[in-house]
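Re: that chain you flagged

S.,

Sorry for the slow reply, it's been a week of failed gels. I finally had a moment to sit down with the sequence you sent. For the record, here it is as I used it:
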Amino acid sequence: MAIGYANTILGISRLGAIGVAISCGFLIDRFNMRWVMFLVLLITGGLTVLMGVVSARFIGIILFLQAFCVTAFFPVGLVAIAKTFSREMRSLATGIILALSIVSGGGLIPYLLGLSGDLYSFRLGITILGIFAALSSRLVFNLKELE
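Prediction finished late last night. Pasting the structure tokens below so you have them in one place:
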């Protein structure tokens, strides 16, 4: 896939981020926060697995859908932080969680994907990342909400 085409697909998929954030707010109000977060993680993990296994002909569609769905995790995650921690601890918890997320998502995971690409296959690394993302969706049910 040409870099320009991939960037165009990714850029267009990010245009829906505002709509996704608003939709997540409605979904959380209508349904249980845990179920919304579970489905967002499961679908994002499944689409990430598909990114690693589909042929190049369909990668554009999968890339668009995955980038669109992964955007839904952030508003849902911030609501989960707000419901999990007390008012006094909320800002500290948000800072620590976001710092750890940036270190792992912006540093460790790309390093491991590059290592996978160098040693064996970049597609294998993407597939394993998707499997772990989908499996992590089960951990959402361990969250303790404040009353």
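What I noticed first: The chain has a mean pLDDT of 85.

Talk soon,
D.
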